[in-house]
């Protein structure tokens, strides 16, 4: 069942910013609380996997199946997020994670006027981080239902369940069956694949693999350390590119792909009893709450991560999701909102969000869409953002279904 929200208000008074943040924020920064489920639901639908994509509208899909009139296809602007752990109606069942799909409607000025929200039961086990993704024709096998001229959709990290081969990378092409891209390291199960980024030049996929599932009792004991991997879907090459991190969470490239940034969210685990899937409350701040930077070095035709260094320590709480903009500024979701540093690791300021931010995405048009567990925020800044597909202008809202009894 879908829910439609048509009461979206944009506040032109910016949230609290650092005084030296003007080069990023600009003079006309504005924000809006697009959705809050705090008064109607205890479920945190907006935790991670925040991506913005374009999909063919229902009318476009109907036209493409017809006799062909030469009409211009119409696309829907859609946001996907994954939820936090949701308890089932039976205590004997494992918790679940749902995907939220939100189709946006805008007016001629580019403002969102309505949003249609739908809950999706994911085909993969416990989805987490996600990116927009386009699969090449050679990989989009006809037997998978995604063959022909290639396809586009969303690539998800699956944290897995107690079964073998359930954690890895799963691709959901628009309107087609999902594809399991990767589910083991040469026969050994991953721990709980959490976040992924695509190399902008060669298309390889770099992802983190912490031990979330085991510590949250929905995965078996890990078979490997908490690694960071590089996987190339064209060749099948899979390598460990980083170790020595306690709880690797978010990952992103700098604008020139010469630097990789990783967040270590070890402080959220609170001596093994806490969770990366929860808020920053109860965090053990004696543990790592750090953004690390690595240089990407090419040797023997392969990329390696070298020169690990502390890039930044979170001002409040623990960094989770991380992104870069075209100017090289680094953004991380933390307990106080989104903390922003320049390429030299100097703290520029904080986009303050009540309850903190766990996941977010950026667009070319200076927009940010922020997941704060039970809330979804839109922020419009001055700065041109990360090199992601240019979808158009304006905010991205969500609505929530008041029915909690969905599992």
UniProtKB/TrEMBL annotation:
Give the source species. Sporothrix brasiliensis 5110
Protein's recorded name: Gluconolactonase
Pfam families cross-referenced by the UniProt entry:
SGL (PF08450)
Domain SMP-30/Gluconolactonase/LRE-like region, by residue range, is 191-265
Q: Which domain of life is it from?
A: Eukaryota
Q: Write down the InterPro entries for this protein, in alphabetical order.
A: 6-blade_b-propeller_TolB-like, Oryzine_lactonohydrolase, SGL
